[in-house]
Amino acid sequence: xxxxxxxxxxxxxxxxxxxxxxxxxxxxxxxxxxxxxxxxxxxxxxxxxxxxxxxxxxxxxxxxxxxxxxxxxxxxxxxxxxxxxxxxxxxxxxxxxxxxxxxxxxxxxxxxxxxxxxxxxxxxxxxxxxxxxxxxxxxxxxxxxxxxxxxxxxxxxxxxxxxxxxxxxxxxxxxxxxxxxxxxxxxxxxxxxxxxxxxxxxxxxxxxxxxxxxxxxxxxxxxxxxxxxxxxxxxxxxxxxxx
Length: 243
Ligand SMILES: NC(=O)c1ccc[n+]([C@@H]2O[C@H](COP(=O)([O-])OP(=O)(O)OC[C@H]3O[C@@H](n4cnc5c(N)ncnc54)[C@H](OP(=O)(O)O)[C@@H]3O)[C@@H](O)[C@H]2O)c1
Fold this sequence. Notes:
By secondary structure, the protein is an alpha/beta fold. The chain contains eight helices and nine strands. The strands form two sheets. Strands 3-2-1-4-5-6-9 form a seven-stranded parallel sheet, sandwiched between helices. It has a two-stranded parallel ribbon with strand order 7-8. The model has no long low-confidence stretch (mean pLDDT 96).
């Protein structure tokens, strides 16, 4: 079954995987995106005139609360919420350029805002049958790397949150899914890593996952990582430590 005729809310739909999700889903669905930088939002607005856009900094939790409450009050049903936006800061704690402010920004963008949006948009998701919350996760939630300790921790937290939320929503019409991605070629990974999956392919796998009954969507090399981690968690940690 193809996802069609749905109202889909995507956070971070202005670049990378989120933009590809928008491209692949907008023709057959009504899409709302939430992102931060107005220049990128303008580009999206000029390309896709049917898209509804909210300009919000997800690291600003007051803004997130206000937007989520306003969306809930508008009373429109939401069929699919894709929590995709995230940031990844790479300086390590011992580096001279490590900035303490990035700790809060990374946690609030990648995790706290997801919880707040979920809380406020649940009533709209409960109006649709069936509906989906899809949290975009990473192989780093399975085994962390050395760089980006906070990023890895937020993805681990997102994994636990998604699983626990799924328990809470058992017996409702809302299904909680996670897509676990390998290294993907986007702004987030510019200038680092090799063998990256194109963002278009990653988004296509996520879209396929929306249409499947699976709650866990392992993409590309994450499938292998999951197997290695099951057979030898120590080996998985060793492989991922170097990033
Ligand atoms: N790329 C990878 O290798 C990889 C691997 C595993 C998982 N992932 C996950 O995939 C998802 C998408 O990542 P990506 O690689 O596509 O990243 P990206 O190209 O950097 O895009 C991130 C998106 O999130 C938005 N965003 C970031 N901070 C925001 C904020 N404070 N408020 C509002 N919007 C914000 C950005 O919009 P603005 O620019 O307007 O802020 C942009 O649209 C993330 O959850 C990431 O953790 C990525």
